[in-house]
Amino acid sequence: MSFKDKIDLSRLPQHVAVIMDGNGRWARAQGKERTFGHENGVNAVKETVEAAAEIGVKFLTLYAFSTENWNRPRTEIDALMELLVSTINSERETLMKNGIKLDVIGDFDALPPKCMTELNEAMTHTANNDRMTMVVALSYSSRWEIVRAARLLGADIKAGKVNPETINEEMFGSYLCTKHMPDPELLIRTSGETRISNFLLWQIAYAELYFTPTLWPDFKREDFYEAIVSYQNRERRFGMVSEQLNK
Ligand code: FPP
């Protein structure tokens, strides 16, 4: 029986977030440049997007480039930016055909203008698709996002638009880049690392974490479905006890 067959479609996570890791190690293991790993990582992106859309996941967030990744060698950064834009461009019609909307979160000011123009075009083009939203986290880090939210909120307080007494979790969340999305219920990280690496720290407060040793370029549809099955086999208690949930 495949993992896909074991999935209970009535209990799917609405939002799955993925830390795609291991491209460099995958390439090095074959005596190739790190960028070869990123190029092959694109296949895993396609597999994952298709797998998620097929079963009815509504939001899929992929961590494509962190603010810390700007410290990588210039040649790798340029290759990654090029790959991101060319992949999104070449997959635009597949996104349309499958009803997938593209969204991007991150520090856009840090991105090359050409990259931003192309991404904006793709976002506009796919804006009315409603089967699934593929969110690409680009030049993103969670601490950057939270500090930005605090700054925006501070400005609204200063302008008299917000009374500090009214600030609560929901309201603070509306200042984050993810304001239009539910929090991820499942976070997947590949490559055997068991860190969060500054990704969606606020939003994963109650997410189930799933770590797999598979390197990202080797990650296939069935690997994604295995993660969903693992998620469905867990008991999500939200601070309560089992007896309260099973009443
Ligand atoms: C992590 O592997 C991967 C990345 C930093 C980039 C992921 C980007 C892609 C797969 C490009 C296409 C993406 C989209 C959304 C179109 P790593 O380089 O950190 O690997 P390592 O830990 O083995 O060094």
Explained architecture:
The chain has 247 residues and is an alpha/beta fold. Helix content is 41%, strand content 15%. It contains nine helices and six strands. Helix 5 (113-125) links the parallel strand 3 (100-105) and strand 4. Helix 2 runs parallel beside helix 3 (74-90), helix 2 (34-55) packs across helix 8 (221-232) and helix 3 packs parallel to helix 5. Bound molecules: farnesyl diphosphate. The site of farnesyl diphosphate (FPP) has 22 residues, from helix 1, helix 2, strand 2 and helix 3.
Specify the structural class: alpha/beta
Q: How many H/I helical runs?
A: 9
Overall radius of gyration: 19 Å
Small molecules (ligands, ions, cofactors) in the structure: farnesyl diphosphate
Distance N to C terminus: 31 Å
- Main β-sheet: number of strands, strand sense, barrel status? 6 strands, parallel
Helix content: 40-55%
Q: Mean of residue pLDDT?
A: 96
How many beta-strand elements?
A: 6
Beta-strand share of residues: 5-15%
Question: What does the overall shape look like?
Answer: globular
Low-confidence stretches: none
Strand order of the largest sheet: 3-4-2-1-5-6
Question: How would you spell out the order of helices and strands?
Answer: EHHEHHEHEHHEEHH
